[in-house]
Amino acid sequence: MKLEFDTRLGQATNAYTWESLPSRHPASDQVAPSTWVKLINPPTAFSFDEAWLLCQVSEHEWLGWVPDHGEILLNLDEFIVSL
User: Fold this and answer.
1) What is 9-38 written as a DSSP string?
2) Which pTM does this prediction carry?
3) Does domain 21-81 sit in CATH 2.30.30?
4) What is the pLDDT of residues 24-53, one digit of tens each?
């Protein structure tokens, strides 16, 4: 963060510089059926935090199975690929 003076307004303003960080979320071509993924927000406090991907539903959605919970529809930004 740096402090800049805006001469048009006659006051100091904060200018934030955001760096582009690599995304932890997978691209649609990095995901495949029969893969374990780590859920960012598990469906319940008592369910597992991983899901088994069953099939792709749309470009950005996958059907998954969470142990002790069942099937769940997941968007690409709701999980990361487990290593």
Assistant:
1) TTEEEEE-----PPPSSPPGGG--SS-EEE
2) 0.66
3) yes
4) 556 656 799 999 999 999 999 999 999 999
